[in-house]
Design a protein that fits this description.
The complex is a heterodimer of chains A (116) and B (112). Chain A contains no helices and 11 strands.
Chain lengths: 116, 112
């Protein structure tokens, strides 16, 4: 398994500003992901964070709005840019080995974001 | 459209009963199936995974997979109030690697 930490754990931000969320894994993992979970909803994958290259974004998510970095195997950041109240959500980082039949993902505690 | 469908619930069972959670998926080639539990205000945590048709047991939990019917279920025996949570069915698509789809989750309430 992997232990994942995120910071900040929560934040309240003003419209139009940006917030960077950090994710740290305690062991080397192949795959890191960023999800969004809105109240009462399931998880929606934003993107796969790729080490040393641009992230792979899911439909409906773009790099200009959610720039992602992954400088090494154990660390990634997600920035929520030019925020609006619609970005209020929980943002979750996850990590896993990315191997066939070892696809289990381990989740960080999440970052609760409120945009006013 | 790749889909994983679950009854949103809430499913309410008395303490000590068997809770049965069900999930269907649309992509016939899906290979890996997971059940995660998510307590309110917490992040998801893995309960079980299953790859082969049939049953897989771990303590009070049994995962059942029927690929022909594209159906996966989770049984919780001797349900406890601490089992009250949302249970997420997760399917790994056959594109390889980590293309996963999360179901919307079923809320379970175990009444003491």
């Amino acid at each position: 398994s992997a232990v994942i930490s995120q910071k900040p754990s929560r934040d309240i931000c003003q419209r139009g500003t940006s917030l960077t969320i950090q994710c740290q894994v305690d062991s080397q993992v192949t795959m890191m992901f960023w999800y969004r979970q809105q109240p009462g909803q399931s998880l929606t994958l934003i993107a796969t964070a790729n080490q040393g290259s641009e992230a792979t974004y899911e439909s409906g998510f773009v790099i200009d709005k959610f720039p992602i970095s992954r400088p090494n195997l154990t660390f990634s950041t997600l920035t929520v840019s030019n925020m609006s109240p619609e970005d209020s959500s929980i943002y979750l980082c996850s990590a896993g080995r990315g191997m066939v039949r070892q696809e289990t993902q381990y989740f960080g505690p999440g970052t609760r974001l409120l945009v006013l | 459209q790749k889909e994983v469908e679950q009854n949103s619930g809430p499913l309410s069972v008395p303490e000590g009963a068997i809770a049965s959670l069900n999930c269907t998926y649309s992509d016939r080639g899906s290979q890996s199936f997971f059940w995660y539990r998510q307590y309110s205000g917490k992040s998801p945590e893995l309960i079980m995974f299953i790859y082969s048709n049939g049953d897989k047991e771990d303590g009070r939990f049994t995962a059942q997979l029927n690929k022909a019917s594209q159906y996966v279920s989770l049984l919780i025996r001797d349900s406890q109030p601490s089992d009250s949570a949302t249970y997420l069915c997760v399917v790994n698509l056959p594109t390889g690697g980590f293309k996963t789809i999360f179901g919307a989750g079923t809320r379970l309430f175990v009444k003491a």
